[in-house]
Write a structure and sequence with these properties.
The complex is a heterodimer. By secondary structure, chain A is α+β, with helices and mostly antiparallel strands. Chain A has six helices and six strands, in the order ααααβαββαβββ. Chain A has two domains: 39 residues; 93 residues, Lrp/AsnC effector binding domain/regulation of amino acid metabolism (RAM) domain (Alpha-Beta Plaits, 2-Layer Sandwich). Chain B is α/β, with parallel strands linked by helices. Chain B has two domains: 138 residues, Aspartate Aminotransferase, domain 1 (Alpha-Beta Complex); 238 residues, Aspartate Aminotransferase, domain 2. Classes of the chains: A alpha+beta, B alpha/beta.
Chain lengths: 162, 385
């Protein structure tokens, strides 16, 4: 059954029918299992991987920045309350507790550099117990979540071979 | 001018070639005619090759090949199939199974020796037997029996001149995996008639329903069996040209002798990449195999749904459906399908007379392409009714 999750993680558009054939299981069983996963929050949602540079052009594409955040931990909650508070902003696409020089590493997206800077200076760094931030703007995405963003090599195979 | 070599001049060119020439000229072709993986060699293997080039591994290796690679190959054979070969005396690295087959036949055959070749089979088997001075003797296998080799039929073809039996399992073009009983039957025959066995196991990792049986590990086979394998299919390394032979010492030694004069060694860079493939790329291989298996299930089911009977292909990446219900012969079917629906397949008869009435479809193609090909074949079948 794990195989079905792995297949969906790679291509969420696969139909239950195809998944059933691929894994050699009855369709009803596959559908029931997927429904159960959706119910239990194992499958949180389905989404597409979009190359926004192709839609908007490199100039107009949203800006992404990695922001390292230093946080003073508090008794009883550690970093959790601050991390949650940061995560609630729509601009924040990911937020991890990490080892190293800072405590949280966030991915923040904005329409341009200014928007991201404003978000950092007005929202992020003014949260209680946030003691420092370091912002790294993304210049270009080569690979994201297992998907490469460069042109794939064409198929070099001959059309008919023994 | 004096005539050229009779044997070679009288060998017809591969029937696949003609389809390649037609398909190469066309646009928007979905090709199910490709006998190689659609995966590119896993990056970690390519990267090891690049590293080897950067560091100047551009020399000859020993004739038999890199010791590390031979050790790894023999280790794998033992671990996977309980087949035991001594890396230093019973294993050599070849430029693919193609060279391995040529070497084995040259070493085993004297002029006029016969080699029994169950068909349909890979297009090179019979010509290579002829080029080595032997005479191929075809034995039919039947699709109703999932192309399992029937030892009794093989025995009926054995004469005092028979020297060897040449098989491939899993097979190109049928995808058939020989059941253990058939292999054991062949070994009994080989013992009874004192024959050699040549076993092309290039698709060994691409078995889906059962585990692969290495012929060299079947009791009684080892002393008379030449096992051929390589990296082209499972590791998606066709263009690197690297494979191996494992055989009893007397045979392996003579293979090295021919190889040292005709090939010297397999490409050094390819051998280093192959070492990486065995040491680090097993996860990549398992992922690719799982992917082929899923496509196989979707494609074979699709073929049956559009009305083509299809024996269950247990290995390789080919389906070999019957097209008899169309009323066309294989060549006409394949040619019309290509012209009318731009789907390239290989007519089954190019793999031997028992392939007539079938087409070879490779499912080493992306799933959306396979699904589109099924739609087109279905439309083509409809136009014939």
């Amino acid at each position: 059954m794990r195989e079905i999750l792995e297949l969906l993680e790679r291509d969420a558009s696969l139909s239950h029918d195809t998944l059933a054939t691929m894994t050699g299981r009855p369709v009803a069983e596959v559908s029931a299992q997927i429904a159960a996963w959706e119910e239990a929050g194992v499958i949180r949602r389905y989404k597409a991987v979009v190359d926004w540079e192709k839609v908007d052009g490199a100039e107009a594409t949203e800006v992404t920045a990695f922001i390292d955040v230093a946080v003073a931990p508090a008794r009883g909650v550690g970093f959790d309350d601050v991390a949650e508070r940061i995560s609630r902003f729509d601009e924040v696409r990911s937020c991890y507790l990490v080892s190293g020089g800072h405590d949280l590493r966030c991915t923040v997206v904005g329409s341009n550099i200014r928007a991201v800077s404003d978000f950092v200076s007005r929202k992020l760094s003014t949260i209680d117990r946030v003691t420092a931030t370091a912002t790294h703007f993304v210049l270009h995405t080569h690979k994201r979540d297992g998907d490469t963003f460069f042109e794939p090599e064409p198929d070099h195979r001959l059309r008919v071979t023994p | 001018m004096k005539p050229l070599n009779d044997v070679i001049a009288s060998c017809p060119p591969s029937g696949i070639r003609r389809f390649f020439d037609i398909a190469a000229e066309m646009d928007d072709v979905i090709s199910l005619g490709v006998g190689e993986p659609d995966f590119v060699t896993p990056w970690r293997i390519r990267e090891a090759g690049i590293y080897a080039l950067e560091h100047g591994y551009t020399t000859y290796t020993s004739n038999a090949g890199l010791p590390e690679l031979r050790r790894l190959i023999c280790g794998e054979l033992e671990k996977r199939y309980a087949a035991q070969y001594a890396w230093d005396t019973e294993c050599l690295i070849t430029t693919g199974v193609s060279e391995g087959l040529d070497l084995a036949l040259r070493v085993l055959l004297n002029p006029g020796d016969e080699v029994v070749v169950p068909e349909p089979c890979y297009v090179a088997y019979e010509p290579c037997v002829s080029f080595a001075g032997g005479t191929p003797v075809r034995v039919a296998t039947r699709w109703e029996a999932d192309f399992a080799i029937d030892p009794a039929t093989v025995e009926a073809a054995i004469t005092p001149r028979t020297k060897a039996i040449l098989i491939g399992s899993p097979a190109n073009p049928t995808g058939a995996v020989q059941p253990r009983a058939a292999l054991e039957g062949l070994v009994r025959l080989a013992e009874k008639h004192d024959l050699y066995l040549i076993s092309d196991e290039i698709y060994d990792r691409l078995t889906y329903d059962d585990t692969h049986v290495c012929l060299g590990a079947v009791p009684g086979a080892r002393e008379r069996t030449v096992v051929l394998g390589g990296f082209s299919k499972a590791q998606a390394m066709t263009g690197w040209r690297v494979g191996w032979i494992c055989a009893p010492q007397a045979v392996a030694e003579l293979c090295v002798r021919v190889h040292q004069y005709t090939m010297l060694c397999a490409p050094h860079v390819s051998q280093i990449a192959a070492v990486e493939a065995l040491k680090e790329a097993d996860g990549d291989v398992r992922e690719m195999v799982a992917d082929y298996d899923r496509r196989r299930r979707v494609f074979v089911k699709g073929l049956r749904e559009i009305g083509l009977e299809c024996p269950e292909p247990g290995g390789a990446f080919y389906a070999f459906p019957s097209i008899r219900s169309s009323g066309l012969d294989s060549e006409t079917f394949a040619e019309r399908l290509l012209h009318e629906e731009s789907v390239a397949v290989v007519p089954g008869n190019v793999f031997g007379p028992s392939g007539e009435g079938h087409i070879r479809c490779s499912y080493a193609t992306a799933l959306p392409q396979l699904e589109e090909a099924l739609v087109r074949i279905d439309r083509f079948l409809g136009s014939l009714r």
